[in-house]
Amino acid sequence: MAAQLLDGKKIAAQIRAEIREEVAQFVGRHDVVPCLAAVLVGDDPASGVYVRNKQRDCRQVGIESRLEHLPADTSAPQLCSVVASMNGDPSVHGILVQLPLPAQIAPASVLDVLDPRKDVDAFHPENMGRIAEGRPRFLPCTPHGIQQLLHRCDIPVAGRHVVIVGRSQIVGKPLALMLLARDSTCGPQVANATVTVCHSRTPQLAMMTRQADILVAAVGRAGLITAEMVRPGATVVDVGINRTDAGLVGDVDFEAVRQVAGYLTPVPGGVGPLTRAMLLYNTLTAARAQVAEKIR
Question: Which of 54, 57, 253, 290 is the catalytic position?
Fold first, then answer.
């Protein structure tokens, strides 16, 4: 029997509806509209699409969206100056610097300047450290979207073995910390996992992945996860986004793995929409915290 597909679009729509209601209540209570400011450097087509999608998402839930579009030859000091200006603007609650950046700008140099209270991607070292300590300010959007997906599809995590293939700062590392934690935004049932993190130098990768109750592929290599690497009945979450001649595909050999797994996320339409939904969640969270700080 083919795997049941996990519909990220449907769940993201549910989350956006919840956020839209919460934003309306927040605005009515405080007369403050949450604001997300994005910075786009250069004219990368994919980045442009991502930013436009995020702007549309903001409009749908009542969050103000601003865009600072800088030329491709912008220097690191120039970009940091723009971010610093947004840091000091009390009407901006969340700041998003769209990646990738041009080669002349090291992402870390920009992250270090970003006010961690407005870092709605949760990439700032302070926010990453808070996740490791189990007291997060924000959660990175893709890992948090994965947790929401598992929770809302009634897939148990507590006590299960999760194998993550990929060790990036954006997905692999924070997701491992979040699933190891004693609790989550969705309750303890979507935490308390036993987690194994694999990567490009892991020997006998297939032997490791076949042990997973939940397998997360987050490497960025098309078709990396084959049917032979999946335990029958396992949940497979495909985070990969790879542009090929055949179109947009994930890290999982979709048709083959679908015949083995119990649950599977498609690409597109799986994790991606949830990533964007959790950015809205973080922006509202940031606005709430900043308004509460002023009241105190």
Answer: 54
